[in-house]
Each structure stands twice: as structure tokens, then as C-alpha cells.
From TrEMBL:
GO terms for biological process: polyphosphate metabolic process. It comes from Asaia bogorensis NBRC 16594. PANTHER family: POLYPHOSPHATE:AMP PHOSPHOTRANSFERASE (PTHR34383:SF3), POLYPHOSPHATE:AMP PHOSPHOTRANSFERASE-RELATED (PTHR34383). It comes from the Bacteria. The lineage of its organism: Bacteria, Pseudomonadati, Pseudomonadota, Alphaproteobacteria, Acetobacterales. Coiled coil: none annotated. This is Polyphosphate kinase-2-related domain-containing protein. SUPFAM superfamilies: P-loop containing nucleoside triphosphate hydrolases.
């Protein structure tokens, strides 16, 4: 009886979860302000109920991905951005774990290699776009080129580029390039959902300390992350500028409160499900020959023998 009551409460409370992405979705960024999203927000929900709901929704997400792969018409790209410690890796593990690895593609963008630097900055991104039927995830992305690169514009190697990286016009042009690039992808059947995991600097401090003190997480600790904390305001400005310039109906931003990882996972899960459901992917119908010969084929399968 108690388990039925808990399940009923979970369904009732988390039935509201489907509406959560709309609260944080930015599809027209002209007037967006980052301060409008509180990093500590958790929607009044409870961790236990949310985790029970996530287990159910993973199965549904996996079924949608299978239908997307079978239909082989569209692809889905999930772009994850956030300050170090925001929970990008754990979100991929917890949200994507119900998907078939054959139908997913996770790409992590690090510092550009010499070969990548010899091309335009979007070259490596275009090479990593998921193919039809796939769900792709960018763990950091082309937005690093208007975030980290912008905060540290004085160190950007701008050989061959037009404009001055220390001037606003340079970054306005680059943001327009990204917006145009994503519009092009949309016309090719590639559907984009961009996520900023928005946490507070206090939360980052706690997570960095936890990473340092836990032997199983210590390998992720990088002292350079501490140096980047001094640029926190500059990063917040860069994020705000990027969202304002590139949030569109086709490639919206989801600015998710991320002080509580379980809550950010819930919001991203529901947003991804909603985007895939909007595509209504369906497997192709069987050939007429199979439909006309179901009985004969069934009998043939039953009569088949294994030799040896």
C-alpha cells in the first residue's frame, strides 16, 4: 500500500515535470538576462521522486531514439555548456544511459589541434554533426569559441581572420556566423537543443572541494580551473551575449538551474523528450511482399533447422 501511495505521489508531483522545460527555454534571446534564472531553483520538487521519475522516462527516451534511428530522416543534437563542475559529464551518464550506444554520438571539444587550427573554427564542429537517425551530444561545443576565446581574447591566434578580437564587432560577427550555421543545419533536418547548466560560484566552489577530497574524483581536478574562477563575471557576460544572439525557434537555449544536479537532469530529460516527440519519428512500413507473405514466412521460420 505504501509503495502504491509513493508511486501515486511521484506521478502526481512529477506530472508537472513535462511543463518545466518551457520555464527555462529561450527561443528569442533579444531581451534575455541571465539573472532571470536562479541557479538554486528546484521547482519545489524532491530528489527521491525525481529520480524515480527519471528511471521511467529513460525507457521512453530510449524508445524515441530507436524510432528516430529506424526512420532515418532527422537527427538530434544536444549541445551542453557550463562552467567547470556544472555537471555536464554526469548529465550525459544519467540522461543518455537509456539510449542505444549505436544510435548516439558524444563528442567532447577540447583545445583545438594544429590540424583544426589550420581550418576555420567551425570546421571541426561540422565534421562532428550527427548523421541522420542519430542523437548527438556535444560536451562543450562551438560555443567555446565565443566563451573561452572571448574571455581570453588577448591570447586568441587570429592569423588570417578579419577583424580585431579585442573589439565587440569581431564577436558579433562570430555569433552571427554561429546563428547562420545552425539555421543551415536546421534546413538539413538536424534539430538542435542547446543547454547551459547554470550554477552559482558558491556551488562550483563546493564541487571543486568535493572533487579534491574524493579519491575517486581527484583525477578530474585541474588547478587551472581555479584560475578561471576569477573570470566568472566575464564568463557570465559572454554566456548572456551568446544566448541573446543565437537563441532561435529552431535552435533554442535551455538555461537550466544546476545547483541541484538531479533537477537539471530532469529538465534536460523532459526537454529532449519533447523535442523528439515533436518530430513524431516512425519506423518505415514493412515491404508489401512481407505483409502478403506473413503466414508463409512464419511457417518457414518455424521449420528452419540449424545445421551442425
Amino acid at each position: 500500500m505504501a509503495s502504491q501511495w509513493i508511486e501515486a505521489v511521484t506521478e502526481l508531483t512529477l506530472g508537472l515535470a513535462r511543463k518545466l522545460p518551457g520555464k527555462y527555454l529561450v527561443s528569442d534571446g533579444r531581451d534575455f538576462e541571465l539573472k532571470s534564472v536562479r541557479p538554486q531553483d528546484h521547482g519545489g520538487l524532491h530528489k527521491g521522486h525525481v529520480e524515480a521519475w527519471l528511471d521511467k522516462r529513460r525507457a521512453h527516451l530510449g524508445a524515441l531514439q530507436e524510432r528516430l534511428a529506424a526512420e532515418h530522416r532527422h537527427s538530434m543534437l544536444l549541445v551542453l555548456q557550463g562552467m567547470d563542475g556544472a555537471g555536464k559529464d554526469s548529465l550525459i551518464l544519467n540522461v543518455m544511459t537509456g539510449m542505444n550506444p549505436q544510435g548516439t554520438k558524444v563528442v567532447s571539444f577540447k583545445k583545438p589541434s594544429d590540424i583544426e587550427l589550420s581550418h576555420d573554427y567551425l570546421w571541426r564542429v561540422h565534421m562532428a554533426i550527427p548523421s541522420r537517425g542519430q542523437v548527438g551530444v556535444f560536451n562543450r561545443s562551438h560555443y567555446e569559441d565565443v566563451l573561452v576565446a572571448r574571455v581570453h581574447a588577448d591570447t586568441l591566434d587570429a592569423r588570417g581572420m578579419k577583424g580585431d578580437p579585442t573589439k565587440r564587432e569581431f564577436w558579433d560577427h562570430r555569433l552571427q556566423d554561429i546563428r547562420d550555421f545552425e539555421a543551415y543545419l536546421g534546413r538539413q533536418g538536424i534539430h538542435i537543443l542547446k543547454v547551459m547548466l547554470h550554477m552559482s560560484p558558491e556551488c562550483q566552489q563546493e564541487r571543486l572541494l568535493r572533487r579534491l577530497h574524493r579519491p575517486d574524483k581527484r583525477w578530474k581536478f585541474d588547478e587551472s580551473d581555479l584560475a578561471e574562477r576569477q573570470f566568472w563575471p566575464a564568463y557570465q557576460t559572454a554566456y548572456e551575449e551568446a544566448i541573446r544572439a543565437t537563441a532561435t525557434e529552431h535552435a533554442p537555449w535551455l538555461v537550466v538551474p544546476s545547483n541541484k544536479k538531479w533537477y537539471s537532469r530532469l529538465v534536460v530529460m523532459e526537454a529532449l523528450i519533447a523535442r523528439l516527440e515533436s518530430l513524431s519519428p516512425e519506423p518505415p512500413p514493412p515491404s508489401p511482399e512481407i505483409l502478403e507473405n506473413l503466414g508463409r514466412l512464419e511457417a518457414k521460420i518455424k521449420a528452419s533447422k540449424i545445421l551442425g
